[in-house]
Amino acid sequence: MTLRDSDHTIENLAALQALFGAVGEASVRKEVSHLHPVYQRWIEASPFAVLATVGPDGLDASPRGDPPGLVTVLDAHTLLLPERAGNNRIDSLKNILADPRVALLFLVPGVGETLRVNGRARISVAPDLLQRLAMDGKPPRCVLVISVESVFFQCARAMKRAGLWDASTQTTVPTAGEMLAALTRNDIDGAAYDRALPARQRDTLY
Fold first, then answer.
1. Exposed, middle or buried, 100 (CB in 10 Å: 0-12/13-18/19+)?
2. d(Cα 105, Cα 66) in Å, to the nearest integer?
3. pLDDT recorded at residue 86
4. pLDDT tens across 123-173, in order?
5. pLDDT tens sequence across 6-61
6. Chain segment 60-87, per-residue pLDDT in tens
7. Which of 5, 20, 100, 124 has its CA 20 to 30 A from that of 138?
8. Three-class SS string for the chain?
9. Is 45 exposed, middle or buried (0-12, 13-18, 19+ CB in 10 A)?
10. Contact between residue 153 and residue 189 where contact means Cβ atoms under 8 Å apart
């Protein structure tokens, strides 16, 4: 391998563009600066998204999930993303306080395409927004009000390569308890953690 070989490292835009070639017309024209009605329909069907942020301590990408309509389309330029109960790390929120730029990747189960939204977010605790986005009678901790700057869909190649929605590709990975036990040298009882986790998640979902 030549990981440290500078002769084989792409270091400028011209070299990068030469490597990949011209952008296709469809790839250019699918990007718009607002929530086109066809993109609004896509967002309204999505129950899952990944939120990416950047701040002084680095990058963060974290999952967000709710029933379809996870993110509310307020208008052609604005999205509302509720912040539900979680682990209280608030990595994304701390980043947004320092740098409002955000990116969202929306997924729909069984669909190969994804939808990408870039914009800027602010954190709101306006009572009307909290009540509007309550789930099971419980309002979110806060709401991200996202001003949209660009929207486009991503083709299905990555999903097809990964076989993401193919049940035959499922495999076994360490449980949450097993990972915690390994990372804490068994200071945290992994088996006990795993036993308590389903009930804790059920009781604190919202």
1. middle
2. 14
3. 86
4. 999 999 999 999 999 999 999 999 999 999 999 999 999 999 999 988 999
5. 678 999 999 999 999 999 999 999 999 999 999 999 999 999 999 999 999 899 99
6. 999 999 999 999 999 999 999 999 988 8
7. 100
8. CCCCCHHHCCCCHHHHHHHHCCCCHHHHHCCECCCCHHHHHHHHHCCEEEEEEEECCEEEEEEEECCCCCCEEEECCEEEEEECCCCCCCHHHHHHHHCCEEEEEEECCCCCCEEEEEEEEEEECCHHHHHHCCECCECCCEEEEEEEEEEEEECCHHHHHHCCCCHHHCCCCCCHHHHHHHHCCCCCCHHHHHHHHHHHHHHCCC
9. middle
10. no
Task: Compute the distance between CA of residue 99 and CA of residue 55 in angstroms, rounded to an integer.
Answer: 6
Domain edges within the chain: 26-164, 172-206
Amino acid identity for residue 137 in this structure: G
CATH number of 26-164: 2.30.110.10
Q: CA-to-CA distance for 100 and 109, rounded, in angstroms?
A: 29
